[in-house]
Amino acid sequence: MFKLEPMNFNFSTVKGITEDQLMQHYKLYSGYVKKLNELWNFPVDARKYGEGNSTYSNMRSLKLGETYALDGITLHQLYFENICNSFKKPYGEILNLITRDFKSFENFKEYLTNVGLSMRGWAILVIDPIDNKLHIIGSDAHDVGALWNCYPLLVMDVYEHAYFIDFQTDRKKYIQIFIENINWKIVNERLEKYYLIKSTLNNLRCFGNNSICPIWYI
Ligand SMILES: [Fe+2]
After folding, report:
1. Which of 13, 101, 139, 156 sits CB 3.0–4.6 Å from 145 for a disulfide?
2. Domain residue ranges in the chain
3. Contact 99, 107 (CB under 8 A)
């Protein structure tokens, strides 16, 4: 039986966002975990779902709920993790890449803020093996605008539920506080993992094994 437990986060280390706001947000995340636990214990017997139909069918409901819950869990875990604890000043390799790909840290903050104001769900800093550069992706919902092969480095939730208790309609102020709380150590660690995965796959290809994760062909 599949059973996932919600992760724990130290919300007392976040400055400028109240624990009440963060705990209400955490309840939503826990709800996605609960629903995924239900979804991933459903039987895989195809005939139990009746005939598939893209307007409405039992299978369609299951599949839409599955991606929504699963992406909701992943994105919220990354989001909570990258605003908790210390290391609030950018440094190291991620700062080098930001300067390289966004010209300056100030411009990066403005660009991230603009994406956050323009989307209804998420702004996500990723690195993609196609060009090995940073990109900020905008998404209107957990399961909309997902990219399958890029690696998430920094996740910002811009749903109203992420800030409305503390900031009401002032999303720009919330984004400013979010940026001040970014845990750059976590972001650097994610970048290191990306490099490790990439070099491991490249080494495997040295032995002629092109069947492993063929999309990562760079
Ligand atoms: Fe959220």
Report:
1. 139
2. 17-81, 92-206
3. no
From ligand 1's centre to the CA of 162, what distance in Å?
Answer: 5
pTM of the model: 0.93
Q: How far is the CA of 163 from the centre of ligand 1 (A)?
A: 9
Cβ–Cβ < 8 Å for 29, 73: yes
The single-letter code of the amino acid at 96 is: N
Whose CA is closest to 157, among 102, 114, 109, 120? Answer: 120
C-alpha pair distances (Å), 149 with each of 63, 129, 171, 214: 20, 8, 29, 11
The pair of three-digit structure tokens given for residue 167, joined into one six-digit string: 């900031």
Amino acid in position 107: N
Contact between 28 and 77 (Cβ < 8 Å): no
> How far, in Å, from the CA of 99 to the mean position of ligand 1?
29
Model pLDDT for residues 66-88, shown as the tens digit of each residue: 999 999 999 999 999 999 997 88
Identify which of 37, 15, 55 has the alpha carbon closest to the alpha carbon of residue 174.
15
